[in-house]
Write a structure and sequence with these properties.
The complex is a heterodimer of chains A (about 120) and B (about 240).
Chain A lengths: L1 H22 L6 H16 L4 H12 L1 H10 L12 H34 L1
Helix pairs in contact in A: 1-2, 1-3
Chain B lengths: L1 H16 L1 H21 L8 H15 L4 H7 L1 H13 L1 H6 L1 H6 L1 H25 L4 H7 L6 H11 L3 H25 L5 H23 L1 H26 L2
The chains are: A mainly alpha (about 120), B mainly alpha (about 240).
Chain lengths: ~120, ~240
């Protein structure tokens, strides 16, 4: 029961996010706007109810399940881009290697600097 | 015999018009995928989602079901993606003290890394002769699915191709974070989590929650910020 209460809160924030997205013509999805709203509200309140924490935990733990239907679609567009799979594959793999390296390198460099400032 | 196959066809028609079959298929493949993943000693290069999605596709192909019908039935899950995205605000809030301590590296890294995540892939694909439609589908490859769908539609890309690129990116980002964490080396799980979320969206975030709650919170942060940043930045740049 209490988890459903948390789910209600999450869905209300999702709808609020969708409403803001449509009304203000924002290019960001309703889910993300709702997430930002929820984070700020929780920060302002300084506490979180057990039901909301429980419902969030439950949904996050099945995130992979929720994106699965979209993922299955990959197998059904294979023919459409037949000549380009090599380019797509290389771009994804090499591009991701480079961007992961960029992220780790920047984060480490600037967080080391941060630690240095405090010492 | 003929009569029986006619009835079998009738049964398939009935099942494919109700969401129950899609739900059974998706949930069944989800559990089977997780189980196989554990049986194979949890290979990093083959996350459960790939196993599960392959199983679903296999069943759809074998039973000659229509992917569109499956997708419609499986909407039950896709609908929950919205509230699940909102739910990511909770670990963000719970880990806010960690995030405050790291705000400077985050502010520096985010715009550069999120931009480069798109630029590397687009430039490489372009130099190898990919069409504009493919480029538009690859650009949001590091963005979480619900936001990426919106971006791809705005840029004129193909949503299924984008979803494929998204998945591959999530998987290889998870691999490369593990690999580079050892090579560089990076041990701070906050940095690893952030890199997982920024580059590998939901797949990376799921992996980060396996490392620790803190890594997961940083992954949610990385994923959320990348989504917001890319959603605003990409449509502006792409039209230049």
């Amino acid at each position: 029961m209490s988890m459903l209460r948390g789910f209600l809160v999450l869905t209300v924030f999702f709808i609020a996010g969708e409403a803001l997205r449509v009304l203000l013509a924002l290019p960001v999805s309703g889910g993300v706007i709702g997430m930002i709203l929820l984070t700020f509200l929780l920060m302002a309140r300084g506490s979180i109810s057990d039901s909301l924490a429980g419902a969030s935990q439950a949904l996050i733990s099945v995130l992979v399940l929720l994106i699965m239907p979209g993922v299955v679609g990959v197998f059904f567009v294979a023919d459409e881009f037949s000549g380009q799979w090599l380019a797509i594959g290389i771009a994804l793999v090499v591009g991701t290697l480079l961007s992961v390296f960029t992220t780790l390198w920047l984060m480490q460099r600037f967080s080391a600097q941060e630690a240095g400032d405090h010492e | 015999m003929n009569e029986l196959s006619g009835r079998f066809q009738e049964l398939l028609d009935l099942l494919s018009t109700s969401p129950a079959l899609a739900i059974v298929l998706t949930l069944g493949a989800y559990f089977a995928g997780n189980r196989l993943f554990r049986l194979l000693n949890q290979p990093v290069w083959l996350p459960p989602i790939v196993i599960s999605a392959t199983l679903v596709s296999g069943v759809i192909a074998v039973l000659a079901l229509d992917y569109g019908d499956y997708r419609e039935g499986a909407q039950w899950f896709s609908v929950l993606l919205g509230p699940a995205t909102v739910a990511l605000g909770v670990p963000l809030y719970q880990q806010m003290h960690h995030i405050r301590a790291m705000w400077r590296p985050i502010v520096v890294t985010l715009p550069i890394a999120a931009t480069m995540a798109a630029v590397y892939a687009v430039v490489i694909a372009w130099s190898l002769g990919a069409t504009p439609e493919v480029l538009a589908s690859l650009a949001p490859k590091s963005v979480t699915a619900p936001i990426a769908i919106g971006i791809t539609e705005q840029l004129g890309g193909s949503v299924p191709l984008m979803m494929g690129g998204l998945l591959i990116t999530g998987v290889v980002a998870t691999l490369f974070v593990d690999l580079l964490a050892r090579l560089l080396p990076v041990k701070d799980e906050r940095i690893l989590g952030f890199a997982l979320g920024l580059n590998g969206h939901a797949v990376g975030t799921a992996r980060a929650f396996e490392i620790s709650h803190t890594a997961g919170a940083f992954a949610s942060l990385g994923m959320g910020l990348t989504g917001v940043f890319t959603a605003i930045f990409l449509p502006l740049v792409f039209h230049l």
